[in-house]
Amino acid sequence: MNIPKNLQYTKSHEWVKFEGETAAEIGLTDYAQHELGDLVFVNLPEAEDTVTAGETFSDVESVKAVSDVYSPVTGTVEEVNSELLDAPEKINEDPYEAWLVKVKDITAKEELLSSDEYEKFVEEEKAGQKEQ
Amino acid sequence: MGSYVPTTAEEEKAMLARIGIRDISDLFGDIPGKLKLNRDLRLPDGVSEMEAEKILRSIAEKNKVYRKIFRGAGAYRHYIPAIVGEVTSKESFLTAYTPYQAEISQGVLQSVFEYQTYICGLTGMDVSNACVYDGAEAAAEASAMCLEKGRNRILVSASVNPWILSVVKTYAFGNGAETAVIPEENYATNPDALKELLDERTACVILQQPDFYGTVEDISSMADMVHAAGAKLILSVYPIAAAILKSAGEYGADIAVGEGQPLGMPLSFGGPYMGFMAAKKDMMRKLPGRIVGETKDTNGKTGYVLTLQAREQHIRREKALSNICSNEALCALTAAVYCSAMGPSGIRKAAGLSMSKAHYLADRLSGAGFRPVDQGFFFNEFVTGCPADPDEILKKLSEKGILGGYPLQGSHKGEILWCCTEMNTREEMDELVSAIREVTGC
Known about the structure:
The structure holds two protein chains of two kinds. Chain A is α+β, with helices and mostly antiparallel strands. Helices cover 25% and strands 36% of the residues of chain A. Chain A contains four helices and nine strands. Chain B has helices at 9-18, 49-60, 82-88, 91-94, 106-123, 135-146, 162-175, 191-197, 219-228, 248-251, 313-316, 329-367, 390-399, 426-440, and strands spanning 68-69, 127-128, 153-157, 178-182, 184-185, 188-189, 202-209, 232-237, 255-259, 275-279, 292-296, 302-306, 381-384, 402-403, 406-407, 416-419.
């Protein structure tokens, strides 16, 4: 399970890469893409859309399910990764390169986890699932 | 009903004994006694098959069935080859419900795939769905496909079938979209009015070809206007006419819809009918309803599946573009068998005959005082004036077993919309004109 040290994470399995205080890139973690399976479509917002911490801003489709993607921050969409519209599988192939959106003018953020905290969280989730 | 095998009384007894139950009513033991009816339902006694047939026949005889029909206005009496009923009445097609484990029903899926293929051929589009409930719904669903942020305005031409407009309005209300009607001129869409109405909030424009009055409109130039404004063109087409006119794709439509009834379904007092929807590849993910795909199984053999299911409401829930989760499978099969039996040349012939007979009738009616209006080129329907009260004339025709044209309402009140198909003979048309002459004294 790949969990880069330089990124921050959410409990809903998104990663955030801050560029300064008010700008960030957001994507899905390796654990997320693995659980989702082969992605066939990504629904992205548009530039200048607002995103709100804790609310969905996108969804990804695998063959049998659609999953919401939650924003870790509140801000404005600067750019969307339109490559993903034609090649959603890039999220599976390289989840930390396949950013979904770049956000600017960030005014708030969720409680974010460090890579160690996220690793622990994922282990607990997997153990919990095994018990079920 | 050769394939239906109910359980016998012995089998029932054995099953009850196996689970330790005395009587079927014990299975409802969880329902408190005071909630149970504890009496028989107040229904009349059953009747024998012979008595039942008599009762149903006397109800059916209340229908007035016209042998001579000169009315269209959205539903058309075309000839249905005998083989259509032969195939669709096979009990595995006729009685089967929607398969829940779809991939086990390869036969049904294949029949739908063939249907989708025919629709793409008729409309000149890349992908079709497994059909929706009727042509009006197809247009409304298509308008929902085009809604996006900043574009929630649906323009519908006044020359489109009025029932399409009313269903589009219903869907728009649910979707929070607005509708506006493009005025008509000379029984066709007014292109200048369309230009005025197009703006950056327009999601889509709905046009009909041929239109409600039978006029063959200049769709291509209007398609250019619609696209220049960044909107989508939804074209509702008459599938028989589609065999000899340009296809919806060639006209520049983004989505082709229409009423499939003319493809082998009888008039049946309004239904069941069937709406077809086909689109260009880039709108594929927005198509509502079922879509059947062709693929290869693990042994490399061709197989059929329900595909692109992640769009549907049972997965997307409140985020789905549409709530439809079924189709008119038997009607889709009917359309597929009709297209297969007729082939492109057969449908072209039916279209050519319908058109030329309509032109013959228009000429003869004109000589009997029913002046054709100034509508430009028409396919198999046309509008005439009427020298007397249309309702009077139509009543007299009805007494002679002839269903005359549709009496128009609103701004065209007093005019009649006539229709011919390949089924109207010259004798019938001459008889119609004589009957009219009797009534009007012309």
